Amino acid sequence: MDAVFLALILMLSIFLGFELISKVPATLHTPLMSGANAISGITIVGALISASSGTEGSDMLATILGAAAVMFATINVVGGYMVTNRMLSMFKKKDVDQSGGKS
Amino acid sequence: MSLEIINLWYVVSAALFIFGLKQLGSPATAVRGNRLSSIAMLIAVVATLFNKDILPWEWIIGAILVGSLVGAITAQKVEMTSMPEMVALFNGSGGIASLMVGWAALYNVGNTTFTDITILLSILIGGMTFSGSILAWGKLSEVINSAAVVFGAQRFVNALILVAIVVCSVMFCLEPAVDSPYLYAVIALALIFGVMAVLPIGGADMPVVISLLNSYSGLAACAAGFAINNNILIVAGSMVGAAGIILTNIMCKAMNRSLGHVLFSGFGAVKEATKVEGEVKPINSEDAFLILEAAQSVSFVPGYGMAVAQAQHVVRELGELLEKNGAEVTYAIHPVAGRMPGHMNVLLAEANVPYDQLVEMEDINPRIDKVDVAVVIGANDVVNPAARNDENSPIYGMPIINVDQAQTVFVLKRSMASGFSGVDNPLFFGDNTRMLFGDAKQSIAAVVAEFKT
Predict the structure, then answer these.
(1) Residue A15 domain flag
(2) Which CATH fold topology does B285-452 show?
(3) Which end of chain B is more exposed for a tag (fewer CB within 10 A), N or C?
(4) Residue B333, strand partner residues
(5) A13 lies in some domain
(6) How many domains does chain A have?
(7) Is residue B53 over pLDDT 80?
(8) Domain presence at residue A99
(9) Which residue of B has its CA nearest to A82?
(10) What is the mean pLDDT of residues B70-91?
(11) Cα(B283)–Cα(B380) distance, rounded to whole angstroms?
């Protein structure tokens, strides 16, 4: 893909990102951050491609780098989404669920 | 699957990421938003795996298994108080992953100079995100001293490193090779630069660092996307980049400091603040109970001290008792309370405080004079009136929650020590201030006990 086209995608997604995220209320900033963290684990896609690029050139190092990158990115993805879900499930509206709350 | 179809699935995935982020805009839909975003990730990964060139299966499955296990265990085990540390570590692992993707991309044949530059960028940003995050984690978990480290020649050293990075990058691009010594130099320099960037930041500025590193981890993914010509990496990476920048900006504004100031100079100690003198008026839990019982409107103002004392559950209990007693109860949260953006909100949500009782600084300040009792728990700088009145104070100009304008203020404090920034707080000497000394959890529990008798 040509560089100008990629740059166009970059520009559009930055603008869109700003629009979407400036609407997130302060209450949700921590889950937003851990959720964003999980999304940055998208490098896993790049890592998967890299891990396989080594096999043709029969270069072991590329495969090892790619596999290690897959592992680190997976930590990000799995950990990030799970902890975000855990946090968001704690946010409850009043009078909806107070079953465990009353003293 | 052909490359076109894989790219088509990436478009679906990008759309779901966008919808997911949009739904994160309200607590009511946020859980669904997070789930959508995770489905988007799954689609992207599965589509990539369908590429027939993806080969060393044993490696990939092994790596995914180990990564999932580590991630899942961490996510389940982590205490809400130590969220900042965990996010710092996750930022770091995203950074190192991008560095490795960039590095491995060098093994592709026929890279253009543009690709080489983006590869270097992904190594650079990834590397500094990694080492910076590890240092930030060390500071947050207090494995190492969390204070800002500033030394005289710092800017000079940083400039030298930057120059060295540029020189090595140029040399590398002139003659790109996987075993070029300049490549190793760039990797080493990136790691050093990450450490140097986080060293001069500490104490109360830590929320800014985490937001910024979060942004870097996204930008690193973005650069890796350019390096391997992959559009989903660019879309998702730049969204994370944008999120981090927005949060960084909010944090800086909430401290009335510019980003440059946070990044390059340690906090405070520039001017001598006006010495505060006066008499503190201590109070015991019995009197505190009598005042609270008569109050129509009570606002809790939590800070990191509440998390340290693990007082959030007993605070919620007191809040419920006050509500039953007919008072309106709110929790006023300053944007930089706690160690990361929104940290207090999560801690209170964990303690079952409904999110509609959590109010922001801008909402509480206009009606603070109608609050009968403001209860400050473990917060200090974010309620310091010196930020409004004392031009010599290092925190002058920082927006604060004006608890001193409430009818009565209770300040829960262990002792008379000053806050994170080391600034004196005239609030403690105010006419309407009552000090409730002792451990926050025990103090509140004592008041709760009074209510129950």
Answers:
(1) no
(2) Rossmann fold (3.40.50)
(3) C
(4) B360
(5) no
(6) 1
(7) no
(8) no
(9) B75
(10) 92
(11) 18
Tell if the CB–CB gap between B349 and A98 is shorter than 8 Å: no
Give every CB contact of residue B219 below 8 A, 6+ residues apart in sequence.
B125, B237, B238, B240, B241
B180 in contact with A, Cβ within 8 Å: no
Classify residue A26 by its DSSP letter: G
Please list, in sequence order, all residues whose beta carbon lies within 8 angstroms of the beta carbon of residue B299, skipping any fewer than 6 positions away. Answer: B329, B330, B331, B332, B359, B364, B368, B371, B373, B374, B375, B403, B406
Q: Which domain holds residue A45?
A: 28-88
ipTM value for the complex: 0.88
pLDDT for A95: 64
Kindly determine whether residue B220 and residue A53, on different chains, have CB atoms separated by under 8 Å: no
- The pLDDT assigned to B176 comes to 84
Interface of B with A in 381-400 (CB under 8 A): none
The 10s digit of each residue's pLDDT in A30-42 is 999 999 999 999 9
- Chain B, 142 to 161: residues with Cβ < 8 Å from chain A are none
In this predicted structure, which of A58-72, B402-416, B418-432 has the lowest mean pLDDT? Answer: B418-432
Cβ contacts (< 8 Å) between A22 and chain B: which residues?
A: 246
CB pairs under 8 A between A and B: 377
Catalytic residues of B: 381
Nearest residue of A to residue B29, measured between CA atoms: A88
Helix (H) or strand (E) holding A71: helix A60-74
Q: CB B74 to CB A83 under 8 A? A: yes
| 214-233 in chain B: CB under 8 A from chain A | 214, 217-218, 220-222, 224-233
